[in-house]
Design a protein that fits this description.
With 432 residues, the chain is α/β, with parallel strands linked by helices. Helix content is 27%, strand content 24%. The chain starts with a strand and ends in a 9-residue tail after the last helix. Bound molecules: 4-nitrophenyl alpha-D-galactopyranoside. It holds the Pfam family Melibiase.
Amino acid sequence: MRPVDEIPVDPARARIYEHGWQSWSPTAWHPATGTSPRPVRPPTQVMSYRPGKPGPEVGFHGEGLLAVDPGDGGPVRVYSGGEDVPSIRAALVDGHVVVSADGPVTMTSNGSATVDPLAAWADDFARAAGMGPIRPAPTAWCSWYHYYTDVTEADILENLDAIHRAALPVDVIQIDDGWQSGIGDWLTLSGRFDSLTELTARIAGTGRRSGIWVAPFLVGARSELAAEHPDWLIGDAGHNWDQDLRGLDLTNPAVTDHLRAVFTGLHEAGFDYFKIDFLYAGALPGPRQSGQTPLEAYATGMRAIREAIGDSYLLGCGAPILPSVGLVDGMRVSADVDPAYAPHDGDLSQPSQAGAALSTVGRAFQHGRFWVNDPDCLIVRPAVERREEWAEVVAGYGGLRSCSDRIADLDAWGLETTRHLLATVPPPLPFA
Ligand code: 9PG
């Protein structure tokens, strides 16, 4: 870390904004006297924070973006880096905030009493990235937050029917994790699905579109892909689904050919909405076959997917945030929501309403500038703790509006709240 700045502050009022690496990394303003949220379990450093860049013992650690409000009426200072996305740290020492970074950083302070400094920064970032108008997102029903990996074709049809009969304003029926035979094996089905082509035809028969979840850059140790192509694998992508995980070398042309085949096949099977997840696995540290940097490799992989799906809607998730500007239509800006309010191990990158709300608010300024913000799905069945609060977060900050309850489990309030939020999608313009 090299010194960047040292700012006299009012320690009682100073605040520090820390931007996390990927969708699930906690992102928020904090009192400068505090310490930022940190992973609790070791694999989480790789899966929900930035691999190889652990945070400091005390103070704050932003990835590519950090801001300091001195709390004395002086301007907010926004620190950001270039394409290599430096880590930027800040700590309160003797009435000063000391800022340091592991790469070149520039400071701007274009905010004012009426202009949010992060929004002002994001306007410049979006302009530099060549961003134009943002595409509106469809509304969606997602299978994940009720069925999880046990989802079956019958479950999808049950909810399609319930949505249709209740005339809910759902544009896309999105099948989440559980349809595929393995993590990396996207060309074959799990035993719980018979035919994607017939399923998308049934969905289209009700006037709706079909969406599907894929973790395109992730490979499970148990997959057929890992057995067939060990030379395609790189790095350590963590552990989930009871198996170790690796990333793909997206600079290997055989790998991008394979990705094109996967996405062309799904597109031809009737899908035109893709939730692509665990994208951090395409940007793991370490050398690639071609010598491209991890973030160049990531962009190469993302472009291969876009080529295969044409103008289908593309929603990023588990994705390095700043390197994805211009590569997706929508972006998950938060950790997973959950029926439980608090994360069970205290780690705000893990599923919980508190963690999802934290970064949804912390990244609100990205909506309408970088993409449509996805705060994660509305869940409002009676079993959801403090469900009114989550509905308010989605109402206030949800650009992409999706729901994820089993429709039959909703009571009258849940059904009407779902209907209302899906019927009142905000335009893809900045909230602030
Ligand atoms: C499907 C889910 C849903 C969800 C995504 C993502 O082990 N983990 O650290 C971990 C983090 C996030 C996660 C799953 C596991 O959720 O955000 O909406 O699609 O994958 O598996």
